[in-house]
Amino acid sequence: MIEDEWKTTNQARFEHRRELFPVVQRVINFSLSLPLYYGDRKDAFTFSTHLDGIIKSLFVKPIPV
């Protein structure tokens, strides 16, 4: 079921008229960011202590190569 929703989201990204693209892109970006804020059943949007770990892992901690 989740795979179908991702497929629908990606199709919506490319099938709209160019004048609607900025609006569609904002909605798509919001839907793609939701797992970062609400993953693991934690509300990182409201409680920023959960978001702190996500930001550190994305931007502060280097990826070992």
From TrEMBL:
It comes from the Eukaryota. Gene3D superfamilies: Farnesyl Diphosphate Synthase (1.10.600.10). InterPro entries: Isoprenoid_synthase_dom_sf (IPR008949). This is Uncharacterized protein.
